[in-house]
């Protein structure tokens, strides 16, 4: 496939149209994953984000995490950070995702369900942000912004790694 070249009119180049949300996704970095209803993303070994509902421009996400990890909508997280009294009581007691030692298990069933629209964010443990890049009736695109020290995988890849069926490196065995 040949890349589309900008069209030139006089002195200025007219670039092909690109939606603003897609330009923004490229500039902010992070890992962007497309997920469908029932699919999930693993953050570390203890946090799971599952798509439980999709509508045009909104998604319902179930977040399963240890109780020690704070999970907030971005606007709530920012309000807590700006209020010194709330910060010491709400953010101060939460562990970060990298500190969470409780692995995901059936004991963690339940979780918090949040509805987010395109452009809205969920903060997990103060170090991980989940942005809804785009929500459509069949698919949602999520941007996960996390430190490199925290593993982020699609759930099916995480399960394969845990089962030993995924090899990221070449084996030394004959």
Topology of this protein?
Layout: E1 7-9, E2 12-14, H1 20-28, E3 31-35, E4 40-43, E5 47-55, E6 58-64, E7 71-73, H2 74-82, H3 84-91, E8 112-117, E9 121-124, E10 128-135, E11 140-145, E12 152-154, H4 155-163
Antiparallel strand pairs: 1-2, 3-11, 4-5, 4-12, 5-6, 6-8, 7-9, 9-10, 10-11
Helix pairs in contact: 2-3
What does this structure look like?
This protein is of the alpha+beta class and 174 residues long. Helices cover 20% and strands 35% of the residues. The protein contains four helices and twelve strands; from the N terminus they run ββαβββββααβββββα. The chain has helices at residues 20-28, 74-82, 84-91, 155-163; strands at residues 7-9, 12-14, 31-35, 40-43, 47-55, 58-64, 71-73, 112-117, 121-124, 128-135, 140-145, 152-154. A five-stranded antiparallel sheet has the order 3-11-10-9-7. The protein has a five-stranded antiparallel sheet with strand order 8-6-5-4-12. A two-stranded antiparallel ribbon has the order 1-2. β5 (47-55) and β6 (58-64) form a beta hairpin. α2 (74-82) crosses α3 (84-91). The longest helix is centred in the N-terminal third of the chain and has 9 residues, at 20-28. It is globular, with a radius of gyration of 19 Å. The N and C termini lie far apart (40 Å).
Give a nutshell description of this structure:
This protein has 174 residues and is an alpha+beta fold.
Look at the helices and sheets and give the structural class: alpha+beta
Spatial order of the strands forming the largest sheet: 3-11-10-9-7
Helical percentage: 10-25%
Rg (C-alpha, Å): 19 Å
Instruction: Characterize the quaternary organization of these chains.
Output: single chain
Give the SSE string.
EEHEEEEEHHEEEEEH
Number of strands: 12
The number of helices is 4
Alpha-carbon distance between the two ends? 40 Å
Summarize model confidence as the mean pLDDT: 76
How large a portion of the residues is in β-strands, by DSSP E? 35-45%
Q: Characterize the biggest β-sheet.
A: 5 strands, antiparallel
